[in-house]
Amino acid sequence: MINVTKTFLPDQEQYIQYIREIWDRGYVTNNGPLLQELEEKLKSYLGVDHLYFCTNGTIVLQIAIKALEIKGDVITTPFSYCATSNAILWENCNPVFVDIDPDTFNINASLIEQAITPATTAILATHVYGNPCDVERIEEVAAKHKLKVIYDAAHAFGVTYKGRSLLSFGDISTCSFHATKVFHTIEGGALISNHPELDRKLHLMRAFGHQGDEHYLYAGINGKNSEMHAAMGLVNLPHVGEIIAARREVCDGYDRLLNWEILSRPVINPHIEYNYAYYPVVFPSEEVMFRVMDALKAEDVVPRRYFYPSLNTLSFMPAYIPCPVSEDIALRVLSLPLYVGLPQADVERIAGIINANLLP
């Protein structure tokens, strides 16, 4: 079976050596030496000053909202994984959905300002599939209206925009290091802040908000990660370059083989160094998408409807806000198998199945 993704696993002995060292120290969590080492190496690799390794890509969104003291309405995208909007709801804020750009699938920055009300306190936007939002326009609107900006950069590890890490934009950017991501720590995530004054606050908020047993400063949460997870990150980090190169080779194959007279895909910003996090394809209709998906599954190929459904349509949202572009694309998009080690012969076979089922 060919799944939509497959976890990259490094040399087993390298990882086991770290586990032996953890065993010898008997120090398995609570900001251990491997976690601190991973944070320093990630800061160096990404070119950022403040980074905090946490348990997953959802808890970091919640911590970011809490640390920035965001209340009320948060403008956000309907085209993302549910963790984005769930974090807003979980922190007792109100998600206000703004439709997406039909080319990039990111939040349409030209529509944000008209959605701002006196209750608006922040913008939480996703760099969809690792493709950057219109960060200049978003920062301009945020500055004008004194709004905080959080970027859900779960897909954006290793992406640079105009020579700068995409994770360095906004008041806080968050990242996911889940096992399916370009860089992973099995489970994990990160907070990346551009504000030195947030340094101590974020450090404490991921560890219950207290220092020692006497100084309780914030209503923190348990966002700490373990030495075992940090070890996986330390073993994987040196391989990121080859991981991205291998993923690009798969993407180049799809680019070359798929029928682009019928299919379409997001327009990738020309000013980035991309990480090839996903390979989304948009079909001319949901009917065609289902026909292709069924044909692939019959050949033991499992794509994913990513992202579906459009988040503004979820039943537990406070109110339905129409987002016709997002709702339309969510019905027609599939992410194709993409991972290190996917043979070109399988890429050719997948493309052949897709092309053969585009027409009735």
In short:
The protein has helices at 12-25, 33-46, 59-67, 82-90, 135-145, 199-205, 227-236, 240-257, 286-298, 324-332, 344-356, and strands spanning 50-54, 73-76, 94-97, 120-126, 148-152, 160-161, 164-165, 172-176, 189-193, 210-211, 215-216, 272-273, 280-282, 333-335.
Give an overview in words.
It is a single chain. The chain is an alpha/beta fold. The protein has 2 domains: 12-238, Type I PLP-dependent aspartate aminotransferase-like (Major domain) (Aspartate Aminotransferase, domain 2); 239-356, Aspartate Aminotransferase, domain 1. It has 11 helices and 14 strands. The protein has a 7-stranded mixed sheet, sandwiched between helices. It has a 3-stranded antiparallel sheet with strand order 7-6-12, with no helix packed on it. The protein has a two-stranded antiparallel ribbon with strand order 10-11. α5 (135-145) links the parallel β4 (120-126) and β5.
